[in-house]
Amino acid sequence: MIKRIGFLLLILTTTIGGTGCMGKSTEEKMLEYLEETYNEEFEIEFVNKGGGGLFSSSSSSENAVAHLKSNPDIVFTIRENKNKTSFNDSYLLARWGKELEDKLQLKASEHLPDNSEYRITLRATPDKYDSSMVNKSVDDFILHSDGDVTVTLVVAIKTNEKPSVSEYSEEIYHLYELIKDVSSKRYAVSVGFVDEKDDISNYMTNVFVNNIGWDNLNAKVYGVLNLNNTQNVSNYESVIDYFRQIEE
Which top-level group of life is the source organism from (predicted)? Predict the structure, then answer.
């Protein structure tokens, strides 16, 4: 099973800012900033020292992956800015994504195959939100942003062989319509057909912050099906056109 660290990519283009503090470790400052900003308790999962390592770059700023202590499924990124006195984070996007996931759970479950896993992510540019919106619901946020967000439903369908996509196409189409009805300008469904023996729970938990696609997952993936708002998906029969088999 892939270690959780292997999935993490700091998606730092969708973050908001805040003030740091001096005389403490970066991890301590990150936690203090998060807890003062959102009045919640958080845990840091992994800190990357700038200038090398897994997330190496020319910047010496430190960045990390964190989660809400009361709900480890709300996983997000936080980064120390170049001046090392402030931070950016994507907590609200992660929280709104989980809120939308919970809101759509009953409807989604009607169309999800048995033994499948799913997550919903929400992305927006930094100018669309800030910490003053902490009390807004996901619906309020989407309305406030005039729908200028990207909503993605990520589904792992467990199977023991190469799938007959036509058996799933109608249900996948219904899931696509469900996400389409969220009223965001951009929406997508990403389905991976994964061997039922492989445990990808960590991958799914970290889907908002990872950079691992279905093709590169450390698991047996039979194929991928991606739908989005730029395609002409008008009925379930057209869904199969977007399936791509992954060669062994």
Answer: Bacteria
